[in-house]
Amino acid sequence: QKEYDTFMTDSKVDKSAKSTDIEHKTAKKQDEEQALQVKSTDLEGTQKELDAALAYFDKLKPSCVDAGVSYEDRVARRKEEIESLQEALRILNGEDLALSVWGAAGAAAAAAPSLTFSSLALVFEVGPNALGKARLLAT
Fold first, then answer.
1. Residue 139 and residue 120: Cα distance in Å, rounded?
2. Is the pTM here over 0.85, yes or no?
3. Which of 22, 26, 121, 132 lies most in the core, judged by the most C-beta atoms within 10 Å?
4. Whole-angstrom Cα distance, residue 77 to residue 83?
5. Phi-psi region of 129 (alpha: psi -120 to 50; beta: other; left: phi over 0)
6. pLDDT higher at 105 or 45
7. Helix (H) or strand (E) holding 33
8. CB of 96 closer than 8 Å to CB of 84
9. Pairwise CA distance, residues 91 & 84, whole Å
């Protein structure tokens, strides 16, 4: 009888421990399943964002990477753009204003105060391949 009582006591303790272990593992499983669901939803959203970004990149790539223009053409356009910007800077600094407004022949007439501007506007025209020209508009 003593062995039976010991066996029953050990069995109750073991059963209690295993029941507690099952409860903990069941709760952990539910937590992990919920975390998996949240992460799956996050993955779907992130994948959609990535797909949209890649589609936008593919849309922009042709306008950014122009393989049809030779190196010499790009250098010439950049040189033209730099010269245009330097001219605009000279105009804004007041240098070369007479030459730009009246032309080289009318530089002597620049001293005459007969022409006044209500405003000057610097316009930068952007052409293909993000190269542009600056020009001064007098109004």
1. 6
2. no
3. 132
4. 10
5. left
6. 45
7. helix 2-64
8. no
9. 11
In the chain, the amino acid numbered 127 is G
CA 131 from chain centre, in angstroms, equals 20
Q: Tokens for 27?
A: 């709760």
Residues 21-52 as b/e (b if ≥16 CB within 10 A, e otherwise) read eeeeeeeeeeeeeeeeeeeeeeeeeeeeeeee
Nearest by Cα to 101 from 77, 125, 120: 120
The answer to whether 96 and 87 are in contact (CB under 8 A) is yes
In contact, 133 and 124? CB cutoff 8 Å: yes
> Which of the residue ranges 18-22, 68-72, 125-129 would you say has the lowest mean pLDDT?
125-129
Winning range, highest mean pLDDT, from 7-21, 68-82, 93-107: 7-21
